[in-house]
User: What shape does this take?
Amino acid sequence: TQLLEQSPQFLSIQEGENLTVYCNSSSVFSSLQWYRQEPGEGPVLLVTVVTGGEVKKLKRLTFQFGDARKDSSLHITAAQPGDTGLYLCAGALSGANNLFFGTGTRLTVIP
Amino acid sequence: SQTIHQWPATLVQPVGSPLSLECTVEGTSNPNLYWYRQAAGRGLQLLFYSVGIGQISSEVPQNLSASRPQDRQFILSSKKLLLSDSGFYLCAWAGQFGNTIYFGEGSWLTVV
Assistant: This one.
């Protein structure tokens, strides 16, 4: 059973376009993280959101945590080839010692 | 600052041979430690996690085992590798509440 579903699984866009990646669950999370991973490397933490409705911005990336803390989105404005990678969301359940990872979104930005 | 290292980075092993991947964390004490496996650029499968020395929780039945002989050392082992053990293995650590996980560089294992 997959606790967190990401969509789309694959996304290929032209440089300069905008995109949104979604992370959905029926479970309530105490916090949610977004990671980006490049081939052959470990995932790198981008952001942690902890409050329902919270919005965080990291340059051209905007992260939002759903009001009910069951879902999250990642919006990239004016995508660049350097944004190419695998984006993973991960949620922490209250009282659990580990994160539950989403299925991943493979983004390719074409120059 | 905290750092995490795992090795070796790349490993090619014959079927039936043993395996040992090692991971160490610096700059923190009593971390939660994790071993994940990742299939071909997709999501992460949690294999083992540990909240303290000698405390290992196994998430998925595997041909693998884990040990934590010291506070900041986590080892992934196998007595006899299978072809299906091939993959990208990631060690990670988190603070005691486990809300944010930080990953090592990863180890590519190819079983031939």
Q: What stands out?
A: The mean pLDDT of chain A is 93. The first strand of chain A starts at residue 5 and ends at 7.
